[in-house]
Amino acid sequence: MTGYILRRIGQAVIVLLGVTILVFILQHLLPGSIARAIIGPRASAAQLAAFNREYGLDRALPVQYFSFLNQVVHGNLGYSFKQNTSVDAIVLHDLPNDIVLVGTSLVLALLIAIPLGIAQAVRRNKLTDYTATGVSFLLYSMPAYLLGLLLISVFAVNLRLLPAEAPQEPTIAGVLSDPAGLVLPIATLTLVTCALFSRYMRSSAIESLAQDYIRTARAKGLGQFAILSRHLLRNSLIPVVTLVGISLPGILTFGLIVEELFNFPGIGLAYFNAAVNGDYPVVFGVTVLVALATVAGNLFADVAYAILDPRVRYD
Amino acid sequence: MTDRDDSRLLGSLTVAAGQAGPWDADGHAVRQDAAWRMILRAFTENRLALTGLIMVVAVALFCFVGPLLWPTDQVHTNALLVNKPPSAQHPLGTTNLGYDVLGRLMVGGQSSLLVGIAVAVIATGFGVVYGVVAGYFGGPVDSVLMRIVDVVLAVPVVYLFIDLASEFKPTLLLLIAVLALLSWLGPARLVRGETLSLRVREYVQAVRIMGGRSGRIIFRHLVPNTMGTITVNATFQVADAILTLAVLSYLGFSLPPPAATWGGMLQDGVNFLYDGYWWEIYPAGLMIVITVVAFNFIGDGLRDSLDVRLQRR
What we know:
The complex is a heterodimer of chains A (315) and B (313).
Chain A: H1 2-29, H2 34-39, H3 45-54, H4 61-73, E1 79-80, E2 85-86, H5 87-122, H6 127-140, H7 144-158, H8 172-176, H9 179-209, H10 212-219, H11 224-262, H12 267-277, H13 280-308
Antiparallel strand pairs in A: 1-2
Helix pairs in contact in A: 1-4, 1-13, 5-6, 5-9, 5-11, 5-13, 6-9, 7-9, 7-11, 9-11, 10-11, 11-12, 11-13, 12-13
Chain B: H1 2-20, H2 27-45, H3 47-64, H4 66-69, H5 101-137, H6 139-154, H7 157-167, H8 172-183, H9 185-198, H10 202-209, H11 214-225, H12 227-250, H13 262-270, H14 282-306
């Protein structure tokens, strides 16, 4: 198993290198040049040349790549000329807000999807199962922002119960001081994440229910609740680790849309605004960061799975 | 219960058909016939798949035949008909540019369906070849090809299209290309996994012993045997592509007017949420949901009937 984990870590490093190469290529594929994107369409050739010399953009591409890689490895994601601040500062400032939004939604989604999946598996092909499957099917087939719009139109426009906007104070203290504003963004992200999880949870619980140890537990005379909580639940938690790991990019994409829809002061919104304003250092810095989170999530899922489930053999 | 038993039976038939085929003089034809018959049978025996198919046919008729029965001008704006609520002349009202919403749903659906299906075909086709090559050759070829897939999967490429929106005027072809570029990774991984188990089967060894080249093994034996997985995955691809297309419209990457897509209509309608112009939002949203649900129904039904195991679905 140690060999497997080491090999898996090696793979992750290779993939991360690939990610930086891809992002570097994308940067240089931009229409126009980096210099023009930053100092504007009316800059003269001499100004462009001066800019390129100052920022090392006139060096050979491999040299530029290694300098870019060096920066990334040292935790420097770039510098936003438009906002006159480093990308790291922007990310660190918004990160706590995202942990609140994405973290809360993720925990809530798991707290709903796991028991729901088990309930569906136990009452398979009964009304409970059909209802839950139907609802998750509907949520799964809906663009995330349409769900957000529905929630806004019902709870903010018609019932006037909740604000249609996320907290507008951009600091974490400000976000937490307006809990009412957090309800709709978190509810939207929780529901779409839940829909992503629940189909998987159901089939995973159905598979676990057919295992021998469940039959053994039944034969021992254990009650239904004890079987579900002690045997089924614990065994169903293992694939959840994988599920969270591989769903991370999807959840972050949903997060971007939710942040844009509710004007939530998170990294997703910062990214969106940067993209619209042509603030490329932020765009590519966050892209590298999200890719890093994705690779780390996958690696974590695989390693945790190998440790948690001794039945799985790796060669 | 009978449903399940049937699907097991069909599952074993899959294997039987796949293994019997290559020994025939005309094995290729027999095997493909069997695959298509199986899919046909899945539709007739699985209520979910049949419901999905009927819904898809209904949506397609609405989009492509509808404009013949309900001709509307979806090119020229009409300032006299701005934001009109539903009436006899305009059963679903009009948009902020005076387009008839019902007629626009039909036209918008044409591009949404075309994009969805084209993306599924292109992405699946490329992904299958890529996955089979990786799985069949194995070793360093496999490692390199699969690491490339991992890299592209890790980079949130969808995000980058927010930038492109300001640089390019999207056309139907560009949208298809962009979405296909995002979508081939899933089938590539699935098919590679399946090829790993198929390539050690006896019939593949037999072909090799008889002097069959790699190309023959890949295209006449391995690819046809992944038909079940491919078909089911392609169906989900259509659903996903239509959803992603809508999300891209929301992020600003969409066909420029007067062309219409459901996602673009939804995006335009969002501005009128607070004015209560529901007809500019919900009909388009409903069409997206109905179509995506329909393709997901087909995918789920086929998966059960063909006994295909897909990761995460």
